[in-house]
Amino acid sequence: MKLSFAVLASALLLSACSEAPHTPVTTVNQLQPASPPPEMVQKPDFASYKIVTEKKQAFADYLKPGVNYINGLIENARTRLISLSSTTTLTESDNEFLAKVAELFNLPIPEAGVDKAWYAEALKRVDVIPMDLVLSQAAIESGWGTSRFAREGNNYFGQWCYTEGCGMVPSARSPGKFHEVAVYKDPLQSIRAYFLNVNRNRAYSELRDIRADLRKEHEPVTGTALANGLLSYSERGQAYVNEVQGMISHNQQYWSQG
């Protein structure tokens, strides 16, 4: 059964503080956030694990339900977008849905209404992100869930905010910098923020182009391929991309289980 778009909107809307480092923030209206999947209610103490393999498995097992949940919502919305793209008559419900997509994914609807170009760009943005890419970035950015920002702020993806008091001040912040590390109500909010960031932020348009090209060629959408579009995610650039791809390759046993 498809989830309603009201559920999609409540699951994906987030505050402006969730955007990526070094990128202008766009504010969107907030709706009541969805509750985390039952498997994510009790957060493990990843730092307490003494055996590395057990910690990695616990980390993957904990975050997977949230990633699957958000990807499922996006798949439902994408299916509806594809259907509407070949429809000439839109209902009031259809127009409300398209307006929400436009708002969520920073893609204004043209004055003349939605057209082929708008649908094409929307389908670039409303698309899934592979599990191995999401979890590899989360592992890198949070130290497998052990960082202060993950433990105290539920921030697993190193995302920043720019309003004083919006998050946690990093101890290594350079003089003259004013960013903070965003704080989230729960880990699902961090996953949601990451998905919207990657799927709508202009810094990651290359990732979305790679994904669209793979779909056009009927090739698998893989985390390794999409990682090439993450040059702007870190100041380290290509070195960061290489680390993400290495993380994907070396930990497939954790990403693929369950």
Automatic annotation (TrEMBL):
- Positions of the Mannosyl-glycoprotein endo-beta-N-acetylglucosamidase-like domain: 104-241
SMART domains assigned: LYZ2 (SM00047)
- Which InterPro entries is this protein grouped with? Bax-like (IPR053195), MGlyc_endo_b_GlcNAc-like_dom (IPR002901)
Q: Which PROSITE patterns match?
A: PROKAR_LIPOPROTEIN (PS51257)
Return the Gene3D superfamilies for the record.
1.10.530.10
The secretion signal range is 1-20
Query: What are the entry keywords?
Result: Signal
Asked whether the keyword Transcription is assigned, the reply is no
Residues spanning the membrane: none
* Protein name stated in the entry: Glucosaminidase
Lineage summary = Bacteria, Pseudomonadati, Pseudomonadota, Gammaproteobacteria, Vibrionales
